[in-house]
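hey can u check if this looks right to u? its 194 residues, i copy pasted from the old doc so theres a chance i mangled smth
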Amino acid sequence: MGSPRKGGNTDLLLDAFLRGVKDGGGEFEKVSISDLNISSCRECLVCEDIGDCVIPDDMHPVYSKLLKSDKIVIASPSFFYGFPAQLKALIDRCQALWARKHILDPVPSVSGSGEERYKRNIRTTDQKEAFVLLLGATGGKDLFDGQLKTIRYFLEPLDASLTGSLLFRKIEKQGDILRHPTALDEAYRAGRKF
């Protein structure tokens, strides 16, 4: 959950999606980025030499969660047509995973669990699915274009691809998502299917 506001529109939409996941027989762990201490990338480029980020913070358990997961769901508001700083910091810190895949491991794919690939610098052709829930205050037709492009690049080193999305415009004030005629039901159904 990329919103810094708990109980807000993004949180409520994600909870509806996750209820669907649970009712569909899935298990999940909800991670609220604002609860974590994740520093921004320092662009020190050490990850390109060792495949790990050297910043000692809460990002390290997140790497493991991202790699071990079968599927990934990202929920976020749009801040100036982009992500909130907390989520963008997490995305930027995945440069370490990109370095593992594209600089330190430019070899043919082999299988293994996400955690094994993380530890052994091995990647796989197995694609995990990702889904995105985005909300924005304006009605601009290109409101989510930048975020969707960023998400696709963020998912690539995780061997994940974006397979679905729900995008809601003109959702700004606290509780607006509750007044939307279909949003929570759409999110629930999408989660159940996912």
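Confidence is low (pLDDT under 50) at residues 107-115, 117-124.
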